[in-house]
Amino acid sequence: MSKNRKDDHINIAKSFKKKSNMFDKILLEGTDLPDLSMDDIDLSTEFLGMKVPYPFYINAMTGGSEKAHKINEFLSKIADHFNLPMVTGSQSIMFKDPSSIDSFKVIRNNHKGIIVGNINPNMTLEQAQVAVSTIQANALSIHLNVIQELVMNEGDRDFRLWSNHIESVVKHLNKPVIVKQVGLGLSLKTIQKIKTLGVKYIDVSGSGGTSFIDIESTRSAKDYSYLNDFSIDTAQALINLKNEKDLEIYASGGIRHPLDVIKSLILGAKACGLSKWFLDLTDLEFAAAVKKVEEFIEDLKKIMLILGVSSLKDLKQVTYNIV
Ligand code: FNR
Questions:
Q1: Which of 124, 179, 200, 242 is the most core-located residue (most Cβ within 10 A)?
Q2: Is 61 annotated as a binding residue?
Q3: Which residues pair with 50 in a beta bridge?
Q4: Residue 255 annotated as lining a ligand binding site
Q5: Does pTM top 0.95 for this prediction?
Q6: Given ligand 1 and candidates 210, 218, 276, 279, which is best to mutate, with the most ligand atoms within 8 Å of its CB?
Q7: For ligand 1, what atom is nearest to the CA of residue 278?
């Protein structure tokens, strides 16, 4: 991926405004008698089998350009400050342009906690191993983005090896592997196939936030927005997976505020990934960004209190209506 394209993605994603999505149609029932104090609320959970203090993480974005280096430097300091897992942007560029490696290594230099590498499924097992070892990642994510590739003039056109590569990486990497979409949502058909490849963790990464169809349409000036028809809203993707027992499910795509996190957890997600929300923080001074994340955590606790539950596992008891 070229450095210019990386910077285009950042600039265009930043220019998009928040929009309404299906989380707005899910209404939770609160209580005025929670019988709890703020101090009782415990937000800790597990992320890909590892203990974490909060049910959200910095999701995949960037690497490979000077601007990407600065963003990764800033966000990895935030990740370290709060002990949040951080997913890197696609590391595929490392294999074409070795000078890009530092923009990924900076994440491990700043962050002692959980780092998840990120590759596309063209990468072989050997490349996946290099991606992980370069940044001493604790896990690896593989992104599926067929539509994004097809709407890019310079994108991939041959997807024959993707399933084989995923299967081989899951089997031999010896680290947790999470398969994610990039904001258009994993379809049930994709998920059924993913399961046969041995995958245990998925991030549905649905629509309702950043859309790579819209980003690529803006870049190329050819309007492919009608292909958003294929997208699956994040809340809908979680509802579709309500009876799923074999996979641990993560939610991203259009997580705009703490209430979207709580709704995702109620709908069955283990934790939530936020990209655009964290990208917007990079415009702030570090102290101001820290304050925003502190407020986010505090507001998660306030919502738990409104719902009358003290731990994330108790969210299962919360009733909701879809309007
Ligand atoms: C992304 N996303 C992404 N995903 C991925 O797996 N590898 C990548 O390299 C990138 N690159 C990237 C760049 C930028 C600028 C953005 C905003 C996003 C997709 C991201 O991880 C997530 O799936 C979507 O952005 C949806 O989440 P939000 O933005 O609605 O919170």
A1: 179
A2: yes
A3: 47
A4: yes
A5: yes
A6: 210
A7: 31
